[in-house]
Predict the structure of Dephospho-CoA kinase.
Amino acid sequence: MSKTIGLTGGIASGKTTVSKILELLGAIIIDADLIAREVVKKGTPALKSIEAVFGKEFITKDGELNRKKLGVHVFSNKKALEKLNSITHPIIINHIQNQIIELKKNNSNSIIVLDAALLIEMKLTSLVDEVWVVAVTFEEQLKRLMERDGLSKRQAIDRINSQMNIEEKKAYADKIIDNSGGLSQLEALIINIWKNIKD
Ligand code: ATP
């Protein structure tokens, strides 16, 4: 029997790092962020809806989504973000659902990992068998986010605070992956978890 795991956590907590380790161990990864980008590619129904609702100014000369401009618009306007989500989220959820069905059909006895920052917010938890939350101390999260994205302390704090509180996310967790230590510590932890799910 295949098992589907939803992997989530705060920004820069280490979801991608964890999913890469799991992939090396043999898991099949579904990257929700990648799907979110694919559904708004040039010529897609979602992009057409975005153009109809938000206007031509959010489409580039080449017919692509102007992500930066739309990002600035929706992140300073809650109603606009809700509108955008109402266009894209159902399509993203549908794609993820279909991918899980397809992967399960073609891979018996596999571990499928859905890497999704918004797993809980988008109610994707109903599509997975287990929820794993990657957690890290606030200080470590701040440090990694500032380093990775070249942000100031203020900008990094604002990004962390704009997300669902990690304690709230932990309440949904079947497993909490503590990524406050170094990379070798994380690898050892994931290898151990992997052994137990494969047994
Ligand atoms: P996002 O929410 O933006 O998608 P994420 O949760 O996928 O981020 P990663 O990109 O995996 O987080 O990790 C954030 C940064 O922290 C990266 O630069 C990564 O290399 C680093 N990192 C992750 N885990 C560790 C660790 N245990 N020790 C040191 N650095 C780490």
